[in-house]
Design goal:
This protein is mostly helical. The chain has nine helices and no strands. 59% of the residues lie in helices and 0% in strands. The termini are far apart. The relative contact order is 0.08. The mean pLDDT is 80.
Length: 211
Amino acid sequence: MPGLGDCVVSEIRPFQVEAFKDALAPLVAAGGYSPITVNGWLKVLKVISKAVAREYETRDFMLGVENFDTSTHATYTEEAPNSLPPVRVPEFLGLLRRRNSGFRAGSALQKPFKDVVECMGLSYALTPRAMRRTFQDLARAAQVADIVTRSVSGHATAEMQRWYSTVHPEEQRASLSRVLRVIEGGLSQQQVVSELVSAEAEVVSNQRERA
């Protein structure tokens, strides 16, 4: 690490770590490094500093050193969606099975994913990692409780679950259609819920037929 590689660990001081952060700050701001990546390095340093403090009975050199702010760092953008609409998942899986039978490492799926994306005519890139986001949308379409969805995906908070979710145009149109029917026909809340359940059941049925 710049500025720290030549130091004896028991002699590292907080100001040196801050200098290390200052050197990386312009690169983080310019997008050369993700703040999440740099915070990962700082996390490793915190483990080392605690071990050094115990071994040499010195002050923990990471005390008071703060992580880079990630609140405005976007992992995904609306301009570059990378999840599948639930209604297209059966088509995707069917094509993927024909091109890639059996279980493979994630890295071995890159080419089959690319081939299937081209075959389906998707206008955006789709990688194996996108399946995590796609699962969120599938669970919502299946009306799985949020707490159950988070227990499967490993998201600790509702905010993170929402961050990894994508509302597709089909879902927006279906929701607006139900709103208009309430306005025009005066449907009760119970009738709306009943129609919602029927619509979701129809989607699941269509997915099974296409699979």
